[in-house]
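@channel sequence for tomorrow's demo:
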Amino acid sequence: MLPMCLFATTFYPLSVYPEAVRPLIQVLPLYHSIQLVREPALGHLGWDLLIPVVYLLAFGSIAMHVATRRMTRTMLR
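structure tokens (generated this afternoon):
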């Protein structure tokens, strides 16, 4: 959890990190959550906020599906 907090632009903007690391940072779910909080707080509302929403909904749906399947298998044993 600590590395995700350090690298997900919680404390520093994305431009601070090396170019090779930026795609890895942009895959983190915390990065998208921070975007959804930071952008409206700075007055930047627009359709570009739809990307983090869709990403988080997809990531959450997949995680819920995996967790439900694992829990069902564990309960049926």
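heads up for whoever presents: The chain has four helices and no strands.
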